[in-house]
Amino acid sequence: MSWTDERVELLKKMWSEGQSASQIAKELGGVTRNAVIGKVHRLGLSNRSGGGAPQQATPAAAAPAAPPKPEAPKAKPSAPVTPAAATPKREAPAEARPAAEPAAPAAPAMSAARRAIIPAGQPLPPQPSANEISPEALAKVSEIEKKAKRLTLMELTERTCKWPVGDPATEDFWFCGLPVQQGKPYCEAHVGVAFQPMSSRRDRKR
DNA sequence: CCCTGATTCGC
DNA sequence: GCGAATCAGG
């Protein structure tokens, strides 16, 4: 693979968006994160500042080269607003057993998809959910989504949060990807809304 | 251990 | 110019 114009463009775009070198490498394909970092430096844009600097820059970095930033702060269209913050709460699986957890990501993702067939982008509140997740947990989730790695299904590993965000039927769909909590399939924030203690349903008339 | 970016240096 | 190896850090 070589650094074609298109690839460089994507690199620039992603880098200024705050994506990590490894994520960019995955997206580009055919290159390692080292290659990406190397290119970033050769392009002289190690200074990420194009609208927002959310990452965690290395404090000890005396970069002598700090050329002007030609990249204009292109408005990031990605939907920061996600109904998913409230969406998945409905299917929050109240699992009490810390054992076996099959295809965790598929479950919530799919169920969200089938219902999304109706309205896309509108809150889908029907469905009398019989559980209330602490507002704190939900707030935490919407916040965490800003820092999410936004991985694709293929990029998920055993230690990346598999919480789905967005509508699987659209481009705006990804998995959290943040570091999972010990043994769980989700990150801390998502574990909070995914695993509910058995409650609010003392009457399990069946 | 997982991850991050920074730098070096043979190619 | 490129990027693996390495370094330094969280």
Automatic annotation (TrEMBL):
InterPro entries linked to this entry: GcrA
Gene3D superfamilies referenced in this protein's UniProt entry, alphabetically: Homeodomain-like (1.10.10.60)
Biased composition (Low complexity): 54-64, 75-87, 95-111
Source domain of life: Bacteria
Disordered: annotated span: 44-111
This protein's name: GcrA cell cycle regulator
Organism field: Pseudooceanicola spongiae
